[in-house]
Structures are given as C-alpha cells and as structure tokens.
Specification:
Blueprint lengths: L3 E12 L2 E12 L3 E6 L5 H8 L7 E6 L8 H4 L3 E4 L11 H9 L8 H7 L15 H13 L5 E5 L7 H16 L3 E6 L2 H7 L2 E6 L2 E6 L1 H6 L3 E6 L18 E5 L2 E8 L7 H16 L4 E7 L2 H10 L2
Parallel strand pairs: 3-7, 3-8, 5-6, 6-7
Antiparallel strand pairs: 1-2, 1-4, 8-9, 10-12, 10-13, 11-12
Bound molecules: adenosine-5'-diphosphate and magnesium ion.
C-alpha cells in the first residue's frame, strides 16, 4: 500500500498535435490538500480529468487510492467526489430535487438537509437550478461532490464566480472536510485560496510544473524584498550593494524607489544582514530611509516571475 492517495509520475497528455501536459510529477498524501495553480491553459483540468478516470494517461502513470483511475473507475467511483470546472446541472430541477437525485446514486449519502446547510443553500431548496446565481450553482456543485462522503475530492476552480462571503464559507467547509480526513486536489486562480487551504502547491505553466512545495518553501527561494524611496539629492550610483547586488530602480510620482531582492542561502538571517548594511550606509550618508519596507517574497511574486519570464 502506498501512503500517497494520489500519485502522478511523468504524466503526458496531448490533444492531436498539441501537448497539453508535458511530463509532470506530484503526489498527495492521505488527508492533505494539494493545490494546482497556473495560468489559463496550463493543463490543470486535463491533469484532473486523467486522475478522475475520464481518460487514460497517454504516457506516464497515475494512481488514485492505489488503483488505476481509468481501468478501475467503477470501483473507485463511490470513494471519490468530483466538482468539474463546468457544471452539468439540470436547469428545470429544484435544488432539493437535484440533491435527491444525487443521493440516490450513493450507498451511504449525507442527509439532504445537512449537505444543503453545509453549502448554505437551505433557503434555496425549492428554487429551480436555472434561477441560481453563478456562485450558488458552484455551491450546489460542491454539495453534489460531497454528498457521497468521498475519501478523495477533486475541486476544479471551486470558488470561481462566488462573492467574497460565499468564498470564505466554502473555504471553511473545505477546511472541515480536510480536518475530517478527506484528501483534496484543488485547482484555483486565487493565490489567497491556495495560501489558506493548501498543505502543498504546484504552479503549472504550459503543461509543466515549474515549482512545487509548501507555500513557505516556494516563496523562500524567491528571496526577501527591501525597498525605500531615494531622496532627490542622492545619485542612484551612490546607493549601496546589498547581498552583492545593486538595486532595481522604479519611479513613482517623480521619485525613484530602490528595490533589492536578497536571495542568499540563509533565509532566516539574510534580510536582517541586508537591512543592517543599508542602515549603516544611511547613517554614514545622513539619509533617512523614507518608506522603508522589508518583506518576504509573496506567492504572487513567485507566480508572476514564472508566468512573465517565459
Ligand atoms: N478537448 C480539447 N481539445 C483540444 N485542446 C484542448 C482540449 N481541452 C483542453 N485543450 C487545450 O489544452 C490546454 C490545457 O487545457 P486545460 O487542461 O483545460 O488547462 P487549465 O485547466 O490549466 O486552464 C489548453 O491549451 C487547452 O486549450
Ligand atoms: Mg481548467
């Protein structure tokens, strides 16, 4: 028995001549939430569809609950909950009728009232699906994915179209499911969603995983950012080197801002050392460090550096 609930090794997938997934590897341990981030067209949905058993892996191997998800789709189905990127709800049915239809497909479904309560749709029970907002439909999709008490949950952009309140409610529900032992693979465009929910993340771009790990691991490789606004009387070439590097200069409102990214090998001490050097320089030059900021790289910095540089 593998301790990994999901294992992907060297997966490749093509549509005709176009290779949408170009050899990716990752695994998700039981009871963990793994988030796949990436630009549109990165290959996230394609990867999920292989794991969901909708199509065989063209090359490489995927395992779900120690089985081949394509060959053993029937056996796996009761153990897996799926929320597709595009929902296939029937517009004429009410919310309650939809949940009831899905409960009938499962051996041990959650009570309808409890699942509607969990996704905050109790008041919409009698409403036709057609009349729901985009965010409400997304919550109904989530209800259907969890109604069979799945061990593994696939959530493809679960909160797209939700207002902030519904999104926060959905995050809470996902956290409760993970706390209860459910393994989750999620895709999202919202970096904050991944930061809040994920044990581990991978950022995909053009069919490849460009970086993966816990959020602190992923951001620590991208350095700490130090910046201040340079007074008019200081020439740019008089600014110090920090960690051996000159600053990048950007101009806002007519005043230059100097920015350094320190990436030295010691993530805990490097910002301290660089700021100490900057302060020593400032004292020597009698310069006040206007709008001084020191911060770790954010997930957004990492994401942008991946999608903008190639
Ligand atoms: N059925 C299909 N036929 C042809 N190309 C497809 C098909 N589905 C997806 N693609 C292409 O494969 C790439 C990856 O798509 P997808 O997996 O949906 O990415 P993501 O979910 O990350 O946005 C995209 O360039 C998309 O246009
Ligand atoms: Mg997608």
């Amino acid at each position: 028995m593998s301790t990994q609930t999901i294992e992907v090794d060297g997966l490749r997938q093509r549509y005709g001549d176009f290779e949408a997934v170009r050899g990716i590897d990752f695994s998700v341990a039981s009871g963990q939430l793994f988030a796949l981030l990436g630009t549109n067209g990165a290959g996230k949905t394609t990867t999920m569809e292989v794991l969901e058993g909708f199509r065989p892996a063209a090359s490489g191997s995927v395992r779900l609950l120690d089985a081949d998800p394509y060959r053993h789709r029937r056996a796996l189905r009761p153990r897996v909950g799926i929320m597709l990127q595009e929902s296939g709800l029937i517009g004429d049915l009410t919310v309650a009728e939809t949940v009831s239809l899905w409960r009938d497909l499962h051996a041990r479904p959650l009570p309808a009232s409890s699942v509607l309560d969990q996704v905050d749709l109790t008041e919409k029970s009698g409403t036709a699906v057609r009349q729901l907002s985009g965010g409400q439909k997304r919550r109904l999709d989530l209800a259907l994915a969890i109604v069979g008490r799945p061990e593994v949950l696939f959530l493809d952009e679960p909160t797209t179209g939700m207002d902030p309140e519904a999104r926060i409610g959905t995050w809470r529900l996902i956290q409760e499911l993970v706390a209860g032992g459910t393994t989750v693979l999620l895709t999202t465009h919202y970096l904050e969603e991944a930061e809040r929910l994920a044990d581990r993340i991978a950022i995909m771009h053009r069919g490849e995983i460009r970086i993966a790990g816990t959020v602190p691991e992923v951001v620590s490789g991208h350095g700490d950012r130090i910046a201040f606004r340079v007074p008019a009387h200081i020439p740019i070439d008089a600014l110090p080197l920090l960690d051996g590097l000159p600053p990048e200069i950007t101009v806002a409102d007519g005043l230059p801002t100097a920015r350094w990214t320190v990436t030295g090998g010691d993530p805990d001490g490097r910002a301290h050392r660089a700021v100490a050097a900057l302060l020593a320089w400032a004292v020597e030059q009698s310069v006040t460090l206007d709008r001084l900021s020191v911060r770790p790289a954010s997930l957004e910095d990492v994401f942008l550096s991946i999608v903008e540089n190639q």
